[in-house]
Amino acid sequence: MDTDVIIVGAGPTGLMLAGELRLAGVRPLVLERQPQPRDTPKANGLGGQILQLLRYRGLLERFSAASTDPSPAPRFPFGGVHLDFTHLAEPPLQGLQLPQPRLERLLGDRAGELGAAIRRGHEVVGVSQDDATVTADVHGRTGRTG
Question: Are 14 and 55 contained in the same domain?
Fold first, then answer.
C-alpha cells in the first residue's frame, strides 16, 4: 500500500496524529498489532490543555457526550491524590472522565471519517529505506504483507 506516513500504534497519540495529518492533506496509515481495541483502560480521563485543543478542533462536545461525567470537572487525579480546584475562581486545570477505550474509539472514528486508514492485527517488524522510499515490513493477519 502506498502511503505518505505510517503510524505504528493505534493508541490515543497515534489516532490523534492520524486525524491531524489528514487535516493537513497527508495520507497516514495506522498499523496496530492488536487485532481488537483494548477493553481495559490504561487511563481514565483527559486533563489540562488537551481539553482546549479538543475545543479548538470542535471536538470537545463530542468527547464530553461520551464521558462518564460529561462536564469538565475542576478536580484532577494526580499520583493517587485528587486535587480539588473548586474553591478557586478560575481553576488552573480541568479534567474530563473518559476511559481510554472510549477515547480510542472516538479518535479512531474521527481519523476514519477524515480518511485515515487504520489496520488492526498488523505489526511492523522491520523498516528499510533507499534514496527515494521507505519500506515497512509488516506481519498481518494473513502473514507478511511488506
Answer: no
